[in-house]
């Protein structure tokens, strides 16, 4: 899932989706794994 999301971020699809719903201002630059949960 992380790799897929990072791919969408890299190619601009993620930003387009957020912009469509007027929430593009909250976009993240990279998907990261929460090491506290997944170790």
UniProtKB/TrEMBL annotation:
Protein name (record): ABC transporter substrate-binding protein
Originating species: Klebsiella michiganensis
Lineage: Bacteria, Pseudomonadati, Pseudomonadota, Gammaproteobacteria, Enterobacterales
């Amino acid at each position: 899932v992380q790799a897929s999301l990072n791919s969408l971020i890299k190619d601009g699809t993620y930003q387009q989706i957020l912009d469509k719903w007027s929430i593009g201002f909250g976009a993240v630059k990279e998907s990261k794994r929460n090491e506290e949960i997944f170790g």
